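Field log, afternoon session.

UNIT: design team B
ACTIVITY: writing a sequence onto a fixed backbone
BACKBONE:
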């Protein structure tokens, strides 16, 4: 068809194209990921292109310590109640097997939940099984010992209340007395929680969190009993809250008091933090590793380790590791460093110290 436009046709030659230049800013913009593109974990062979790591896990509540410890404590306590309730009687002058083993079993199964919860979250089922085998005998022994101690504390606290003129369990002073007694169970839970990881720091954090959580659970037990007017539901709710409050408090305390930790910014565990308790923390694909990296064939069984040496923190790499975009073998870490192992990315963080 003939061109009916009066204007002459536009012709572009190869010489014209050769003279065209593209601004560097446009290159940088076009090089970014397209909106809505599939999320990538990165490739350690090209770390320099992956320095900006998008935090993928901020909203993942299931990887927060206070959440999974609270859930594990509540489930353990409720399971113990369900087992013992058929053999429990409310009469003060009678005792059955449920009366004898309920509190020790509550503590045992709470400790079991605390001991295996983190391993299950990390998909390390072998470690969870091993911890469970360690926790069960400890929980049974601690359960009966600390139940005996808690009864002594409760009786002493009640005697003090009655000496002060308290005559009824509706008085808040009695609720506080039970709270003090249940703090004993919190201490036991914190000890077992730290022992299975062989960490004295974790023991201290666990004890403090256990005291806070169990004390709060004990103080609301009697008000629940008065509200339900029945022993069975009050015990179910009370013990469930004991496990929940103890686990939540332990998670909050250890997060608040942590000194050095790794925050997972990318990878299957994005959003989780690994608190560095031990002098040496092993990272690898073996399930026994302190930080277990799964679903990545590029990660060796013992890929790297992090050593705490006084106020300094050192990374020792066996496999391929990049720190802030540079290959690393032995390197001192500074807060904010980005550690890349396979498709996992970690931010190293430490508490600011007074100089």
């Amino acid at each position: 068809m003939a061109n009916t436009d009066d204007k002459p046709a536009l012709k572009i030659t190869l010489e014209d194209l050769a003279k065209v230049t593209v601004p560097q800013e446009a290159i940088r913009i076009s090089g970014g990921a397209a909106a809505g593109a599939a999320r990538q974990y990165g490739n350690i062979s090209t770390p320099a292109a992956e320095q900006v790591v998008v935090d993928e896990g901020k909203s993942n509540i299931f990887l927060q310590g206070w959440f999974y410890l609270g859930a594990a404590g509540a489930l353990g306590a409720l399971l113990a109640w369900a087992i013992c309730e058929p053999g429990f009687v409310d009469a003060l002058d009678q005792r059955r097997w449920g009366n004898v083993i309920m509190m020790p079993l509550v503590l045992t199964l709470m400790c079991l939940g605390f001991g295996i919860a983190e391993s299950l979250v990390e998909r390390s089922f072998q470690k969870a099984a091993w911890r469970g085998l360690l926790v069960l005998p400890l929980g049974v022994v601690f359960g009966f010992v600390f139940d005996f101690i808690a009864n002594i504390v409760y009786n002493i606290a009640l005697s003090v209340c009655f000496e002060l003129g308290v005559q009824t369990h509706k008085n808040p002073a009695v609720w506080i007395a039970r709270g003090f007694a249940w703090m004993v169970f919190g201490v036991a839970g914190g000890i077992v929680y730290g022992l299975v990881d062989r960490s004295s720091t974790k023991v201290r954090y666990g004890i403090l969190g256990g005291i806070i959580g169990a004390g709060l659970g004990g103080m609301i037990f009697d008000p629940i009993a008065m509200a339900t007017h029945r022993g069975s539901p009050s015990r179910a709710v009370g013990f469930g809250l004991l496990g929940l409050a103890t686990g939540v408090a332990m998670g909050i305390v250890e997060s608040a008091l942590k000194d050095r930790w790794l925050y997972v910014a990318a990878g299957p565990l994005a959003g989780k933090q690994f608190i560095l308790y031990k002098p040496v923390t092993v990272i690898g694909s073996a399930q026994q590793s302190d930080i277990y990296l799964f679903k990545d064939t590029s990660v060796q069984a013992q890929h790297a380790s992090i050593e705490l040496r006084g106020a300094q923190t050192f990374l020792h790499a066996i496999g391929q590791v990049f720190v802030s975009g540079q290959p690393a073998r032995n390197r001192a870490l500074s807060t904010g460093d980005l550690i890349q192992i396979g498709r996992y990315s970690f931010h190293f963080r430490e508490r600011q110290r007074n100089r």
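LOG NOTE: Residues 25-46 have pLDDT under 50 and may be disordered.
NEXT ACTIVITY: expression trials, pending approval
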